[in-house]
Amino acid sequence: MYKIENEIFSDEIIVQEQGDVVVKNEKLFREKIVPNLIETIIMSDSSLMKKTCCWVTHQAAQQLGVVPSSIQGLYEARGRGEISGFTVPAMNLRVLTYDIARGVFRAAAKINAGAFIFEIAKSEIGYTDQRPWEYTSAILLAAMREGYRGPVFLQGDHFQVKATNYLKDKEKEVNPLKDLIREAVEGGFYNIDIDSSTLVDLEKATIDEQQKSNYEVCALFTKFIRDIQPRGIEVSVGGEIGEVGGKNSTAEELNAFMEGYKRSVGAVKGISKMSIQTGTTHGGVVLPDGSIAKVSIDFDTLKELSEIGRTQYQLSGCVQHGASTLPNEAFHKFPETGCSEIHLATQFQNIVYEHLPIPLKEKIYAWLHENCASEKKPDQTDDQFIYKTRKKALGPFKKEIFSLTQDLKMKISKALEAEFDFLFSQLKINDTKVMVDTYIPLVSIARKKEELLKEEQELGELEGAD
């Protein structure tokens, strides 16, 4: 604990008073303590030390007005027709999360933007080695480093049910996802996207029967979330009717899901948005030379279903997944269709890889050939294989990538900031900070260090006994 006690806490900058954290000098805290905290969280091999730094981060953020929040109030206002004309970007940051998030906050500050989400999918939590508490801490530290104040939206993306597992043993599939949701909510993820669209069975005779397992399981998880959400927080929950990469969604499917979902969820507050399929694929379709095939999005479907969602069910609208690799000229169309949220991931990862030193990339690619060889399809070229699998290396190489020089990390952050500048302007989230401040209350949730560190302390006691 030497590093924490002697470098994190300082009588001049940050102290502990009666079990709480007090920031005494915000400028020095941002310049000196924040870099120390993120380095310890990423590089330390001690779970106890990492969690302690996460607790310090959370406490300091609450004090400085950087508050994990639910976007529910903003989406409800949109469902009532009080606000419109913009699409909220939801950004999956798979690597260098702290540095890239700094670019997000800088880009947002230029245009007074507040309606943007940081998210990570169930699968990404695994292969990027970022548990919810770590991801939240990286985002909050980035916000504090850039002087941001206000609500910060963190989201569990594609918290997905696997159909084959569910059909074999429902409880065995549902219970681990409940555990992940609980961990995410405890970590400050007050926005959860439930993806039970994998349970849609197009072989059934009627659309209601096709969607039945989907809406029943989504309702089950909605009720669970309402039971565990903190006092004063209404978690924003999303549903999904069309699995990304599958057939395009229809109005009939949306209506069938929503009517069945309303019956299943009862009086409990329901979802605030609906993810649909309009022709995209996660990561894009990779051509033999490693380039990405052009995608044609069905904007008419996106517009029609968003309108139905708002007018008939008071949803904020529909959500577009798999949009990272779309051509630049497509993005201005999303606000025009009434799309409420767009999910972006792969292009950010691509920009990071473009900047990695060649020796490190060669090391990563060699690791992929050795550890992911079973994923290579017979008709895939090496370029296709590398492009599709290189996300799997982000966890194993997380520390090595974080250890890049500060100059190179800032260069990557600046390159991504330019990407965010473009996306934010196209999605028209300028001046949405005013809307966010109007509709989103700041609710501080107390976190006791003893509760957060209980598991690590118990493990330490057991190890000591050995």
Can you describe what's shown?
With about 475 residues, the protein is of the alpha/beta class. It has 3 domains: about 1-65, no CATH class; about 70-355 and about 410-440, Aldolase class I (TIM Barrel, Alpha-Beta Barrel), CATH 3.20.20.70; about 355-405, no CATH class. About 55% of the residues lie in helices and about 10% in strands. Strands 4-5-6-7-8-9-10-11 form an 8-stranded parallel barrel, surrounded by 5 helices. A two-stranded antiparallel ribbon has the order 1-2. Strand 7 (about 190-195), helix 10 (about 205-230) and strand 8 form a beta-alpha-beta unit. Helix 3 crosses helix 7 (about 130-145).
Short description:
The protein is α/β, with parallel strands linked by helices. Helices cover 53% and strands 12% of the residues. It has an eight-stranded parallel barrel with strand order 4-5-6-7-8-9-10-11, surrounded by five helices. Strands 1-2 form a two-stranded antiparallel sheet.
Task: Tell me the name of the CATH homologous superfamily of the largest domain.
Answer: Aldolase class I
The secondary-structure class comes to alpha/beta
Helix content: 40-55%
Proper CATH architecture of the largest domain: Alpha-Beta Barrel
Describe the SSE topology.
Blueprint: H1 2-8, E1 14-17, E2 20-23, H2 26-43, H3 47-63, E3 66-69, H4 72-79, E4 88-92, H5 97-111, E5 117-121, H6 122-127, H7 132-145, E6 150-160, H8 163-168, H9 170-186, E7 191-195, H10 207-228, E8 236-240, H11 251-265, E9 273-276, H12 299-313, E10 318-320, H13 333-337, E11 341-344, H14 346-355, H15 358-371, H16 382-389, H17 398-402, H18 406-426, H19 432-439, H20 449-465
Parallel strand pairs: 3-6, 4-5, 4-11, 5-6, 6-7, 7-8, 8-9, 9-10, 10-11
Antiparallel strand pairs: 1-2
Helix pairs in contact: 2-3, 2-7, 3-7, 3-20, 5-7, 5-18, 9-10, 10-11, 11-12, 14-18
